[in-house]
Amino acid sequence: MFKKILNTVSSRLIAAIVNILLLVFNSKTLGVEGVGAIGLILAVCMLIVVVNDIFCGGGLAYLVPKYEMSSLLFFPVFFSLFNTFLVSVLFYYLKLFPYSQALYVFFLSFIFTLSSIGKIFLIGKEKINNLNQVELLQPLLMISFLGLYFLLTKKTSLTVYLSFLFLSYFFSTFYSFYKLYPFLKIKNLRIRFSIFKKIIYYGFFNQLSSVAQQLNYRLNYFFIQKYLGLASLGRYDVATKISESSWIVSRSIAAVGLSVFS
Fold first, then answer.
1. How far is 240 from 231, CA to CA, in rounded Å?
2. Is 171 a residue whose pLDDT tops 90?
3. What are the CB-based long-range contacts (under 8 Å, 24+) for 149-157?
4. CB of 196 within 8 A of CB of 76?
5. In 3D, which of 88, 68, 65, 57 has the Cα closest to residue 199?
6. The pLDDT of residue 260
């Protein structure tokens, strides 16, 4: 178990370093206002993911070792797609993001949720090495895509960053489900409402603390953007991401512990 924790901490530490390099790159190429714009969009996406995690969050990890993956997969994917659309529309009418960013918010929120589902199943199946690979793959792909594009064009933009962010999550999520494929028996794929009730039960109570935490972190983004502007939001976003890197050890231990004891 100690070896798994060490490997998990190492992979997440490397991922955190890559993400900090991305922050520096964005600050230099897009400016603090560009970083603020990215942070605002991702804050909206994270709030949507928090709602989706009722169906595919930590509560699902408790059920993964107890049921076939074929029985568990349908509801999280279907309801995350439905909720992503519904909540995206709601947030748009609340004017949390402009119409021009609507597709980015929808697709990023959905791929973030699919990525979360893949990681939860990897944890439930005790595939910690594969989980670490996924955690590391996404930021490495992101910095590779963005760096190569910048070298070829000598420019970047908000839309370029968001597009590559989606692609990096798409490929890392695809890899996670590729590693899960041996556990997925397509012919046994079916809908079981008894399992759906358990997903809701465990997911809802598990998400109560997460909702409060995310609201505490993410609502600040909207207040800062409204009253202080995108430049101030960009500085706040950088500080927030750097401070969140201090959670690497605790999150690594939690992931391994959830895998072993679920």
1. 14
2. yes
3. 150/25, 150/29, 155/29, 156/29, 156/30, 157/30
4. no
5. 57
6. 46
Give the position of tokens 């900090």.
20
Full-model pTM: 0.87
Q: Residue 37 is encoded by which pair of tokens?
A: 């714009």
In three-state form (DSSP H/G/I as H, E/B as E, the rest C), the secondary structure along the chain is CHHHHHHHHHHHHHHHHHHHHHHHHHHHHCHHHHHHHHHHHHHHHHHHHHHHHHHHCHHHHHHCCCCCHHHHCHHHHHHHHHHHHHHHHHHHHCCCCCHHHHHHHHHHHHHHHHHHHHHHHHHHCCCHHHHHHHHHHHHHHHHHHHHHHHHHHCCCCHHHHHHHHHHHHHHHHHHHHHHHHHHCCHHHCCCCHHHHHHHHHHHHHHHHHHHHHHHHHHHHHHHHHHHCCHHHHHHHHHHHHHHHHHHHHHHHHHHHHHHHHC
- pLDDT at position 149 over 90: yes
- Residue-wise pLDDT for 159-169, tens only, equals 999 999 999 99
Q: Kindly state the tokens that stand for 152.
A: 């070829």
Other C-beta atoms closer than 10 Å to the C-beta of 104 total 21
Give the tokens for residue 47. Answer: 């709030």
Question: Tokens for 203?
Answer: 């997911």
Closest CA to 17 of 157, 176, 136: 136
Amino acid at 105: V
- Encode pLDDT of 102-136 as tens digits: 999 999 999 999 998 898 888 888 888 888 889 89
Closest CA to 80 of 47, 55, 107: 55
Q: Which amino acid appears at position 132 of this protein?
A: N
